[in-house]
Amino acid sequence: MKLNRRRFLLGTALAGGALLVGYAASRPSRQSLANEHHAAQGQTFLTTWLRIDPDNQVTVIVPHSEMGQGVLTSLPMMAADELDADWDLVRVEQAPVDDLFANGVLIKGFAASMGFTVPALLDRGMDALTLKAAEIMNMQITGGSSSVRFTGEMGMRAAGAAARQMLVRAAAEQWQVREDEIQVANSVISHPGSNRTATFGEMAALAATYEPPRSPVLKRPEQFTLMGRSLPRVDIPAKVDGSAQFGIDARPEGMLYAAVTTAPVFGGQLERVDNVDAVMQRRGVVRVIELEDAVAVVADNYWRASEALKQLAPHFSSTEHDQRSSADIFAEYDAALESGEHNKDVAVGDASGALQSAASVVDASYRVPYLAHAAMEPMNCTVHFANGRCEVWTGTQDNLGIRGQVAKAAGLDETEVTVHPFYLGGGFGRRLPTSTNTIIQATQIARHFDVPVQTLWSREEDTRHDYYRPAVASRFRAGFDSDGNLIAWENAYIGKNEPAEAAHIAYQIPNQKIDYVESPTHVPFGAWRSVAHSQHTFFLESFTDELAWQQQRDPLQFRLDYLSDKPRHQRVLREAASRAGWNTPPQAGRARGIALQESFGSIVAEVAEVSLTEAGEVKVEKVVCAIDCGRVVHPDNAASQVESGIIYGLTAALYGQITIEEGKVKESNFHDYPMLHLAQSPEIEVIILETEGAPVGGLGEPATPPIAAAVTNALYALTGQRVRELPLRHYQFLPTPEERGGNRA
Length: 745
Prior knowledge:
Elements (H helix, E strand, L loop, with lengths): L4 H11 L1 H9 L4 H8 L6 E4 L2 E3 L5 E5 L8 H13 L6 E5 L9 H10 L12 H11 L10 H29 L7 E3 L2 E4 L4 E4 H8 L28 H6 L14 E7 L7 E5 L1 H5 L4 E6 L3 E6 L2 H10 L1 E4 L9 H14 L3 E6 L2 H7 L2 E9 L11 E7 L2 E6 L4 H12 L6 E5 L15 H10 L6 E4 L2 H6 L7 E9 L5 E9 L16 E7 L15 H18 L4 H7 L5 H13 L11 E9 L2 E11 L5 E11 L6 H21 L4 E2 L2 E2 L17 E7 L16 H14 L26
Parallel strand pairs: 3-4, 8-18, 16-17, 20-21, 24-27
Antiparallel strand pairs: 1-2, 2-3, 5-6, 6-7, 8-11, 9-12, 10-11, 13-21, 14-19, 15-16, 15-18, 19-20, 22-23, 23-24, 25-26
């Protein structure tokens, strides 16, 4: 398996755990450092994520960025519930961009999800270990559907429970009573036996003299008072009244604006720029700045900068990729799959032998194109150099990571960089440090000025210089015995990316061989909502559907038959199918398709009902989604995230395609990289299922992967045309002469 940066750093941190534990034992506690450096008069941190004021207000410090997923509500709910705080007295703050607020809990979560185990010798120092690892990795990341399932479950709940125990201990000490005689509710501590009460604010100073307990006692689900309720979201009022501040809204005094154009072919370098003198004569233009692979115009407003940029004539170097196209890339993929080095991903039984002896064999090849992120808020970053320091205003999925990038680009220590966090107008992986080329450009441009400079990318610049979801090709072979039992599964695909399990199957097939082949391209790639699951679920569930139809079996029952050991998977399939009316005929001219996937700790089944317009274009009428995410913190927010994930994946399936021509991206804006419009959106029904005792799963991404296969499987049921390549906008579908519709072969 490819060793990515996160896996390497996690492994290194765990391997060097003894040293880190020693480091942590010699430093002040996070709690004491928070009180020393981040507490105002009378304020008290009981943990780094919980602060209590003298007026009894509880502030929850959230280490994740708000990008529409409701994290500023769900995480405080989890902490406040365990604390037994009055929700009306709870306030929320974005975590300062400071090593002290590095999110060590994510290290634990990601390590567990990647199969790392903590040596027993180091278990007592795990908190210290993960904190230092988080500091090394600049870990304030928002991504991987990790906020609730890792930070919430392993961090916020523990922080709330720990603070509650500390407050109870303080009250017991002050009142000279037993701790088990004390009650806590609605931010009030009471001792019924003596009729004494105190607020959190009154006990906070004494409570802060204790170290937080390592293993605080958490509530059982039946004891929750906030979790499981759909409370009003904290971020909504400001977004409704227009006071919410996004990165693009930053307006530090004296700010200039920069517009940029980058080498059209990835890897190209700037050689010269013509028409500079003429551009400098334009109203408002301050400077033309040449970068290694780009040129920028800086002016007193963005319109003047962008219009002046159009007058420049930059010349970029040629590269070895100048004639390369998407067709060339897929041809290289095919050659690699045919004769390249195959790396083992999964090996169970003897797939090759079983295929040789199979009564029937089914072959299929699939592929998907590059995709852009197309976040609503254009990419932007505002930077100001002054007095040997640097200030940054931007919306990012990892504030500490961006601080590190800016420091490196500016030649400064990270402590000399201040990052001001903002709301994000869409992230989807695009605003992770490894996928944010805007930040480096903004830093390089701003170094030429003693006033703030906002670098703002046009939609064209973002579309043509994204870090794209990779294009992938995948080949399958499956074998049945004479009784129609699926006995062999063989799959080879291009590129092993995160998460590692994306190409693995849930179905019980005795012989499996799954390989990957590397075939690098010059096109930069990065995380995209649901990452590798978005490609592989389309492949896996389309091919599974093919196998069902080949055997003339109901696609739902076919899946269920190979999931006898996975009751949660069976449950979501049955629930989605039942609510979609799977066993009843659809309206004339419609058909249904189904798909299943487990990702980010959640299991999702989706049924899509489709029809065709008179022109043969696809219309998705309805989507029914059943998701088992273990336990739900905020039901309305959970449903919203699922709906969002479906729309995002449906947009990609219907329209999404980044095309390489002559080494560069062909698409430029929404006219040729279209989005799903409101009028085109289907009716969506979301069924939230909970499984007692199951780990909490993610919600931001799991609904995205199945939708493409659910739609294309429905199209096959309707038309008899099997879709093995996306997007669907390139197809013209015509119903079969029988006008067949339904769910079965």
